[in-house]
Amino acid sequence: MTRVLGIETSCDETSAAVLEGSGNDVHQRSLVILSQDIHRVFGGVVPEIASRAHLTSIVPVVERALADAGSTLADIDVVAVTEGPGLVGALLVGVAYGKALAYATGIPVVGVHHMEGHLFATSLEHADAVPPFIALLISGGHTLLLDVEQWGSYRVLGTTRDDAAGEAFDKIAKLLGMPYPGGPHIERAAATGDPTRFRFSRPMVRTNARPGDGDFYDLSFSGLKTAVRLATQKVDIESERANIARGFQDALIDTLVEKTLRAARESGRARVVLGGGVACNRTLVSRMRERLAEVGATVYAPSARLATDNAAMIARAGLFHFESGERASSALSAAASLPIPGSRSA
Ligand code: KG4
Ligand code: ZN
């Protein structure tokens, strides 16, 4: 049995967690997430403020996670820290802290890819959310459709050509005068919206409809964003807010569901695993479940706490790499962009 301390500081959450276990039998002992509320005032994450806030919080957050787990550093076998992608200044706080811990205590460190963390998150809550499966990772910065043969081996089926799914939610929310992050606000407004009032076309669905077509699995949200912006210019936003939110969310969800359905059908995988902040969207999850049932696939979604950024998922992915024999060198650093280890294009 291995005990892992996970650290996540890639964006605006300072998080630490302790997990223990081996293979797919892993238990979460603690998870502390400190969200930096200050960015709301600016309508988005301000990198310099994020870095400073991580610096203030990292020590108490790690100490709290250790205490909640009934652990001390002496019980920890490995430190797993997010090395990228993300905001470099924010990432550096976690990486430098993790390396300093390692240097002072002799505990090994592994660097973790943030999106690989999101890929592992759901397995902490659902024992069946393990490979082989199709994964749809939908966060604020990335959108990835993957065929996961086994942990550590990923075929990238599709990505976004422009905005990430969460980014599209955040930008449309801003347009509608809602606070950052916008996803939850859009979802709430959409629930009372009229689905027939605004019908936006579903991006990348009608064209590229056959396997082998260039964008069969790829996504794009910039056209939808423009269509929504044009619609807002013609109406009174105040009275149409919920209807626009509904029209936008329906179009975005239909696209994500259609691409995931294609991946499940073509691969024959019986499981679909969702991850990333947008997987908090209950409407998306229920539509995904309905449609994927048509091809006999079961959909696994994380709880909101594990869908958004957290260190438990980083510890979980780190455990896999540690058990595979990986150890980071003292040269471990932060990277703004980084390919998922073990990934190849379809
Ligand atoms: O994975 P995450 O916490 O951070 C990144 O790695 O980016 O994802 C944050 C994103 C934001 O864009 C936020 O608006 C979106 O997740 N989000 C949602 C919902 N809750 C969070 N999007 C749609 N519906 C939601 N309920
Ligand atoms: Zn994330």
In DSSP terms (H or I, runs of 4 or more residues), the helix count works out at: 10
Helix content: 40-55%
- Order of strands in the sheet with most strands: 10-9-6-7-8-11
Shape: globular
Number of strands: 11
Low-confidence runs (pLDDT<50, min 5 residues)?
A: none
Q: Superfamily at the CATH H level of the largest domain?
A: ATPase, nucleotide binding domain
Instruction: State the assembly state of the protein chains.
Output: single chain
Gross CATH architecture of the largest domain? 2-Layer Sandwich
Number of domains: 2
Primary descriptors:
binds zinc ion; 11 strands; six-stranded mixed β-sheet; Nucleotidyltransferase, domain 5; 21% strand; alpha/beta; 2 domains; 10 helices; globular; binds 5'-O-[(R)-(carboxyoxy)(hydroxy)phosphoryl]adenosine; single chain; 346 residues
Record the SSE blueprint:
Layout: E1 2-8, E2 13-22, E3 25-35, H1 47-68, E4 78-84, H2 88-105, E5 109-113, H3 114-121, E6 133-138, E7 143-150, E8 153-159, H4 165-175, H5 183-190, H6 222-234, H7 237-267, E9 271-275, H8 282-293, E10 298-300, H9 304-307, H10 311-323, E11 343-345
Helix pairs in contact: 1-2, 3-10, 4-6, 4-7, 5-7, 6-7, 7-8
Zinc ion binds at residues 114, 118, 139, 276, 309.
Describe what this molecule looks like in 3D.
The chain is of the alpha/beta class and 346 residues long. The chain folds into two domains: 2-119 and 307-345, ATPase, nucleotide binding domain (Nucleotidyltransferase, domain 5), CATH 3.30.420; 130-301, ATPase, nucleotide binding domain (Nucleotidyltransferase, domain 5, 2-Layer Sandwich). It is 40% helix and 21% strand. It is built from ten helices and eleven strands. It has helices at residues 47-68, 88-105, 114-121, 165-175, 183-190, 222-234, 237-267, 282-293, 304-307, 311-323, and strands at residues 2-8, 13-22, 25-35, 78-84, 109-113, 133-138, 143-150, 153-159, 271-275, 298-300, 343-345. The strands form two sheets. The chain has a six-stranded mixed sheet with strand order 10-9-6-7-8-11, with helices on both faces. A five-stranded mixed sheet has the order 3-2-1-4-5, sandwiched between helices. Strand 6 (133-138) and strand 7 form a beta hairpin. The protein is globular and about 60 Å long. It starts with a strand and ends with a strand. 5'-O-[(R)-(carboxyoxy)(hydroxy)phosphoryl]adenosine binds next to helix 4 and helix 5.
